[in-house]
Every structure is written in C-alpha cells, then in structure tokens.
Amino acid sequence: MIDESKLIFFTGAPGSKWSAVSNVLSMTKKININTTDRNEDREYTHPTKFNKAQHLGSYFGTGMEFGEGWHEINKFSKQEILNEIDKAWKEEKRTDYRIVKSHMISNNLDFIAETFPKSKIIIVFRPIESCYKGWFGAGGFGITYPKYHGYYKDEQTAREYIKEETKDARQWIFNRNLTIHTATSKHWKDYWDITDSQNRFIKSIEGYFFEKKDPSRDVSLDTHIAYYNFDKIDERL
User: Fold this and answer.
1) Is 235 within the bounds of a domain?
2) What is the pLDDT of residues 172-227, one digit of tens each?
3) CA dist., res. 111 & res. 113, Å (int)
4) Number of independent structural domains in the chain
5) Angle at Cα 235 formed by Cα 97 and Cα 201, nearest 5°?
C-alpha cells in the first residue's frame, strides 16, 4: 500500500529540463528517494549535447510505458492512479519518496492537489521558446525513452501541448501564490544539501556546457522550480 505523503507528483513540459531536475533531486540525502523504478530499459542518454542529458526511471503519460490516458487523469479514480504508480517500482520501500514524472498532469494540477492532499507537487518550467529549442535540440521525437509519438504526434501538436502545459503550470503557480526558485547550484546546496556544483545535471540546468570554450559566458539560468506541500520537509519551500 502506497503512503500518499511519500508521493511527489513531478511535472514540466518537454524541454523544461525537468528530467535533469528530477535526477538531481534523487541525489539528495535530505529525504530518501526510491529509485528502484530505474533499469537499463528505462534510460536515454543524449550522445553529445547538454552534458549528456539523461532520462532515468519511469515516466507516466499517454503513449508511454505507464499512465496511459493520463492526459485525462481526472477521469481516473484515486485507486486506479495509485495502482498504476505502483507498477513502476521494483521495491516498495515505504519510508522512501517516489518521484512520479508526468508532463500531462500540468493540465490537471487542481485535480492532483485535491485527490492527493497529503502528496507533494513539483513543477519545473522554462520560457516556452526555450522548451521548444531544448526539446527538439535534445532529439524531440528521436528520443528513444520515453516515447512521445503516441500523444505529442508531430511537431505542430508537440508545440501546442508544450505551450499549454507551460501556461497551465504557470497559472497554477500564480493562483496558488507559490514561491519560485531558480535551479542553480546555490539552490541545490541551500535547500537540498547537494554540494557538487560541477554535477553535470546541475550544470546543464544552468545552461553551462562543458564542451564550450567559455561555458559560463552563455549560462541561461532560466529553469525554475515551484514546490507545493513541502513545508514539513523545509518550510522555505
């Protein structure tokens, strides 16, 4: 049986660098993250760009391994959602948190908050044009995991959904008056006790790419995070 207070519903549009953010969060010692959803079949590494950006572990959403129909997750019962989540993890580890990654819950954040009042939500967002550039630059429909063709279909559809997911997420943050954090090395150190400022995921999130001649010259610092229901972990969040 899943402890709802240990669920982190994690969302961001394609290209928001949300995967890198989830990868960094999973390294914290402040809370225990259950990573037994990871295996070699649930992995994608960009061969050259973005400090070899990676997708690791389970992803939920229509057309993906888990979460079929989650573009309309509000039509599922609470138990159906919990059952689907439970499929992805090899070990229960009741004291550990599970990061439930889904682009599509950006469109149903009220439903998630109301249906799972004890659970946490993390939203990652960037400017819409940056998401377009980031996702298509990272491979777009050529990304082998997770699969995007089933829901995002083609470039025009993907652009529209990225825009709507970002707008819905930002509107929800605004309406809930959540604090917005920029995902910098300092953020990870101050809030999550992650002190490796040269971690390749952190540098990628900052827009610092090791292959460049002067990496700090072109940092973007445009990836932002909002936390919901994290006050018992850190009241500053």
Assistant:
1) no
2) 999 999 999 999 999 999 999 999 888 999 999 999 998 899 999 999 999 999 99
3) 6
4) 1
5) 55
Which tokens in the block code for residue 143?
């990304």
User: How many alpha carbons lie under 13 Å from residue 102 in its C-beta half-sphere?
Assistant: 32
Place of tokens 């995070």: 225
Of the candidates 124, 131, 134, 138, the residue with the CA atom closest to the CA atom of residue 160: 131
Residue 237 belongs to a domain: no
Tell me, yes or no, if the pTM score tops 0.90. yes
Among 156, 169, 154, smallest CA distance to 121 is for 169
- Residue 167 exposed, middle or buried by CB count within 10 Å (0-12, 13-18, 19+): middle
Contact 18, 124 (CB under 8 A): yes
Identity of residue 51: N
